Structures are given as structure tokens and as C-alpha cells.
Recover the amino acids of this structure.
């Protein structure tokens, strides 16, 4: 009986220690996602998945709404600042912010090109632009997204 109590007490202590050690990591990850920009980017990711699926299947009726939603979200994101700015030297922040906004502008340009491909019913061109959008997203996240796992 005493041995069972000792084991339970040990497990309880281990659980408390684990929670104490992982709480800051969980909190940082939540703070990273729980920003206006993080929420906008999550919505954009969902819309991009819809766009990519529509492009793959050639579903022209679904392409325009997904593209329009991404464009709307990109305009919202342009007014935000990436959390990664907090991690760099203050003297480097203006350049990073300028680069971030240039990336958002490039995203809008690709979306405009996609709209033109839609109008022309150019399926191959549209699929190529969707691939470019995906690559642009990966490159931009690598450059501007804060790593919340640190």
C-alpha cells in the first residue's frame, strides 16, 4: 500500500514537472498563432488548399472565389507586421518590413496573373501560377515566419 502511494506521488511529481517545463513552449506556440497575422495566414492557407484543389481538378467555378479570398486576406496581411520583427535588431526592422510588404505585393501580382489566366480559360497557365503561388508562400514563410518552436 505504501509503495503504491509512493509511486502515485512520484508520478504526480513527474507530471507537474513536465507541465512546468512544457508550458512556456505551449504558450509561445499559442501566442505565435494567436495574432491577427497568424489568423489571417491560417485562413489564407485554407483558401490556398481550395484553390490548389480547384486547379488540379479544373473546377473553374471554385477558382475565382478562392483567389478572391486569398487576395482579400493578402490585403489584410499587408497591414500587419510579422512577429519575427521582434527577433531582429531594431536597425534591420525597416528593411525586413519593406521586404515583407514587397512579398505581399508579389503575391497580389501572382493573383492578378491568375485572374487573367482564368479569363482566358488557360488551365495550364493557371496550374503553373498556382504552383508559383505555392512556392512564393514557402519562400516567404521561410523568410518572415517566426519559429515558435524555439
Amino acid at each position: 500500500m505504501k509503495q503504491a502511494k509512493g509511486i502515485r506521488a512520484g508520478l504526480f511529481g513527474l507530471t507537474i514537472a513536465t507541465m512546468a517545463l512544457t508550458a512556456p513552449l505551449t504558450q509561445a506556440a499559442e501566442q505565435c498563432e494567436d495574432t491577427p497575422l497568424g489568423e489571417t495566414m491560417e485562413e489564407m492557407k485554407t483558401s490556398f488548399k481550395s484553390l490548389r484543389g480547384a486547379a488540379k481538378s479544373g473546377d473553374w467555378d471554385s477558382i475565382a472565389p478562392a483567389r478572391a479570398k486569398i487576395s482579400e486576406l493578402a490585403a489584410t496581411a499587408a497591414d500587419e507586421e510579422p512577429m519575427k520583427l521582434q527577433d531582429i535588431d531594431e536597425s534591420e526592422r525597416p528593411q525586413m518590413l519593406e521586404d515583407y510588404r514587397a512579398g505581399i505585393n508579389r503575391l497580389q501580382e501572382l493573383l492578378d496573373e491568375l485572374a487573367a489566366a482564368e479569363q482566358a480559360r488557360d488551365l495550364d497557365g493557371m496550374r503553373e501560377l498556382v504552383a508559383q503561388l505555392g512556392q512564393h508562400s514557402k519562400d516567404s514563410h521561410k523568410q518572415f515566419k517566426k519559429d515558435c518552436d524555439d
